Amino acid sequence: MTSLPPSLAVLALLGLAAPFALAFNAEDQKPTYGYRDTPYLPGGQWRVHDADRPLPPVVDPGTPDLDPPPSPPPSDAIVLFDGSSLDHWHGDGGKPAPWKVEDGAIVIVPRSGSLISNQSFGDCQIHLEFQTPSPPEGSDQGRGNSGLLIMSRYEIQILDNYNNPTYADGHAGAVYGQTPPLVNACRPPGRWQTFDIIWRAPRFKPDGSLDQPAFVTVFHNGILVQDHTQVLGPVRWRDLARYEPGDAHGDAPILLQDHGDPVRFRNIWVRPLSH
Q1: Mean pLDDT score of the chain
Q2: How far is CA 166 from the centre of its chain?
Q3: CB–CB of 221/63 below 8 Å?
Q4: Domain-wise residue ranges, the chain
Q5: In which order are the strands placed within the sheet that holds 115-121?
Q6: Minimal CA–CA distance to 132: which of 60, 196, 190, 61?
Q7: Helix residue ranges per DSSP H, the chain
Q8: Within 13 Å and on the Cβ side, how many CA atoms surround 245?
């Protein structure tokens, strides 16, 4: 059983400490979401959580009248959740898994802490299904918020963005705080949604410095939202993600984030990939 790496103290700043991000346009006083005092991302056009960055266009991914049952995993997949138990997971600091299993789904117990896979992964394919609460409560980052942290460090945002705007790099399917999704492919709250992810882990030199950054491809409800996107570094809130000296690591667990909302998960599996 692998405990959470010390570098993840950043989560205390990210999820549970993050207030709703509401700014106002000085010209027309219409509310927008995000910040105007954060560092610029590479390229210098947009800030982290930029209030003025265009939102991803909405694409209807197609929502069936009834949610289909989860599809069986591939024969070579490592199944982390099959609807029955949390045997493949633990909580922060190696504690027992703090969430519950209900009607074949994992349900976040708000404010109980993270859920972390017992097994570590490097390059991999990840399949995960999630459902944000219905009826929805809250707005902006306070509505159906969670996160998939690959290698416990690099976040793909989970959020209810169905008729719920937020800053662009905080939308569902974003590399949080770095790259917005190409489109907003959210289904309505209460409907099952899918992430299918191809992850290429960062490589580090023998001295611990970065040799090659991570790259990620994400399909949200079958629609491409990240296309071999370079990952700038471990997740940060209101700060520029970067690989710091001492960040070098090997394979690491998957982490599901508790942001205070009872998001549900099912059908989680991983296929390790060769480099």
Answers
A1: 90
A2: 15
A3: no
A4: 6-272
A5: 89-90, 115-121, 252-256, 146-150, 154-158
A6: 190
A7: 10-14
A8: 1
C-alpha span between 156 and 263 (Å, rounded): 15
Q: What is the pLDDT of residues 139-158, one digit of tens each?
A: 999 999 999 999 999 999 99
Beta strands 210-212 and 105-107: pairing type?
unpaired
Of residues 146, 115, 117, 199, the one with CA closest to residue 15: 146
Assign domain 6-272 one CATH number from 2.60.40.420, 1.25.10.10, 2.60.120.560, 3.60.110.10. 2.60.120.560
CA dist 271 and 133 (Å) reads 28
SS3 annotation, 111-162: CCCCEEEEEEECCEEEEEEEECCCCCCCCHHHCCCEEEEECCCEEEEECCCC
The tens digit of pLDDT for each residue in 242-253 reads 999 889 999 999
